[in-house]
Write a structure and sequence with these properties.
Collagenase (Catalytic Domain); globular
């Protein structure tokens, strides 16, 4: 209930600042493919953490768990629908060998188009010396990769879109700092609005 209140408050605040953007324009649907076998609790908490980061920018993420292989009785109908511009895909894997172009996947993930891939083994290895919990690492990595899907390949010197994360970015106290910068928030809203109107 608290999360719903916070997301609603963020959307109302955005509507006041950007009256040309309706709250219905600020939603992205996410299809989740959990190939790494992360626990349901870890996944739920990570999704909530990523949703919190996007909610601060006024964007709502709607999650759909897509099992594999898909079975008619357990599959979310959204998983079988044709992909729309307002759909993002999240692939969680144990680890992959990225193509040379993505060889410095800085925080254990990379994005191609609307498909974000997060690699759990390198991600957890990077977070080992910190107080960051696995779900926090995963949630922050998801938000970072979706940031690339919507904003492009550039990184920033602060916030969630930093290229390299160390103890300063992954410690417990860093949660409030790992968000989108104000200019990125505005760009996110415009990108999501555009996709929802295609």
């Amino acid at each position: 209930m608290l999360m719903t209140f916070l997301v609603g408050t963020a959307r109302n605040s955005i509507a006041r600042r950007d009256p040309e953007i309706r709250s219905g324009d600020l939603k992205m649907s996410v299809r989740v493919y959990n190939y790494a076998g992360s626990s349901a609790d870890t996944l739920r908490l990570a999704e909530s953490d990523a949703a919190r980061i996007f909610a601060k920018a006024g964007v709502r993420l709607e999650w759909h768990e897509c099992p594999f292989p898909a079975s008619a009785e357990s599959a979310d109908p959204a998983c079988a629908a044709p992909l729309a511009p307002s759909d993002l895909q999240l692939r969680i894997v144990k680890g992959v060998k990225p193509m040379r172009k993505h060889a410095d996947a800085e925080i254990g993930g990379f994005t191609l188009g609307n498909l974000a891939t997060v690699q759990m083994e390198p991600l957890l290895e990077a977070g080992r010396p910190t107080a960051c919990l696995p779900y926090q690492m995963l949630g922050r990595a998801i938000a970072h990769e979706f940031g690339h899907a919507l904003l492009g390949p550039e990184h920033s010197s602060r916030g969630i879109m930093q290229a390299r994360w160390g103890e300063g970015q992954l410690g417990f106290a860093a949660a409030n700092d790992l968000v989108f910068a104000p200019d990125q928030e505005k760009a996110l809203r415009l990108a999501v609005k555009g996709r929802n109107r295609q």
